[in-house]
Amino acid sequence: MESSALPQEIFLLLCEELAARRDFGTLFNCSLVSRRIASIALEQIYSIQEYSPVNTGDAIYKLEWLQLWKSIILSSIKKTAFPYCVYVRALSLGNLEECLQDISRDNYARDIFFDGAMKQFLVLKTSENTHEVQLPPMDTLATIVKCADSITQYIKRLADDTGTAVSLAHLEGTYIPHHILPTWIARLGTLTSLRIRDGSVLSIEAASAISECCPLFVDLTCYYCSTADEDLAAFFQTLRPNSLRSFEVISQNSIGKNALTALNYHAASLRRLVLRNLTPQAMKALNSFPDCTFLETLLIENDRYNLVDPADYPEETLKEVSSWICKCKSLQDLSFSHFVGSDPVVNDILNSPNIRLTSLSLISIHSDAEAEYASTWTALGLQDHLESLTLGLHELGYGHIAEAKPPLVDSICRLKNMASLNLMQVYLAQDTVERIAASLPNLSEFSFGGSLLHNSVLIPLSAIPKLKLLCISSLSSFSFQGLYKFVSRLISRGRTGIKIDILNQLGECKLTTSESDLLQMHFMKHLEGRLEIAYFMDPDELHETDFSDVSD
Questions:
Q1: What are the pLDDT digits (tens) for 337-395?
Q2: In a domain? residue 523
Q3: Cα angle for residues 336, 342, 345 (degrees, 5° grid)
Q4: Residues ≥6 apart with Cβ < 8 Å to 99
Q5: Does 520 map to a domain?
Q6: What range does the domain containing 29 cover?
Q7: Nearest-CA neighbor of 61 among 74, 70, 52?
Q8: Spatial separation of the C-alpha atoms in residues 526 and 208, rounded to whole Å
Q9: In a domain, 238, yes or no
Q10: Using CA atoms, how far apart are residues 497 and 469, in angstroms rounded to an integer?
Q11: Residue 483 within a domain
Q12: Is the pTM of this model over 0.70?
């Protein structure tokens, strides 16, 4: 009986599954089988290239990293066997910038990268020294623009010629010229997300290009946003109404009442809103987008170096913020940082019967009112769907962190679905640590700080059935025998893959080298895990207190 070749669809399904698993090695081997399979395998490789270890910029992958970018760029001028650039789903120009910076002072690597047809993409800075023997330095940013312009132009031309959509959906860049961004956007009809360093390039022209050419666009991220509040508002208003699904600003920004009010234009679509480093003017205008009630993720962070005093909020503002958030019935992930005096808002949210959070992060939000403290943390116990909780209570002074009091501890112990608990900035007594460990059977990540810990705390910690990551920042005086028994209990329970970080073991309780090596060996051999111990006042290291004042 004659054999027949497998249908193309079978190879496609196979390669798509390998891509979903990010199995680059097997995909590459598939590409070597035949040209027919290579076209399928290579398309899948380049579609997930941003996840490749090559893209980390690690020195061991330097040549592969260069070759990856070289092939993408050359494909835009038809100098490769396949059109790799149209397979790419995420074009990270920031990653290309790292690649070029890595070779900018290496003339040998630079010559290899820009040899042949690649030479047209190299832009050099003009040198004032006409007698300079060496080549002038590379103009990295201009080179990136030239490469990206070629890639986006080819993608647009191929889409127009074939009448088909291409893969590119995500564009990221640390530097994209203000006047060029609208042109690039207009070429990328499948664009869904844009991630940029400086939001000042978000002009009305860029928004118009998105509105007219990118019907699938939903996601915008800015590292910082130096554009005026009014300009960002105009950008939001120029986008198609109710099209933006996610907006995030990470660092310094000039967002104010105008931009926040303009978010109401996307009230029906907005699901994720992350506002970091907000200025006082923005914090005082948090009641400006009350129609955005379909949020699933909300993060609000006041610039920690420019905090708003609770007394400075306009009258009724915090009540209006509370009323707005409590209407977000789909809210699952909530984070407040340095939102001082927001206890009443948090209290209302935690008590709301319409909200069941799965993730909550509260960093430095509290006033000094004991009644508000107790009421808020009692309400925390009502959020029984919580799986992740991070708390950093209000600092009382340098080096002092608020203690976990009974209302907070009682509520935490009721949260039986808790998988990740970060209490690094909360002062826990040893008996509190033991109680939490015994109360949360689904805990897989546990980080905490607090009072001096002794061997006995290791017994309940080793009994947490699903623990995978344990980070202890409290001072500790664990002995070798205590830690060895701890490891033995983990081994007896088959707890493979566990990672332990003990960050402040007292220097006077330092393990010997042989003891440390034995524990490490047990962890790696029997648990396939990791144990790291750092010492407070390590006797084998010099400290400032070791030096006397020589001025006497």
A1: 999 889 899 999 999 999 999 999 999 887 666 666 788 899 999 999 999 999 987 55
A2: yes
A3: 95
A4: 57, 65, 66, 69
A5: yes
A6: 8-47
A7: 52
A8: 59
A9: no
A10: 9
A11: yes
A12: yes
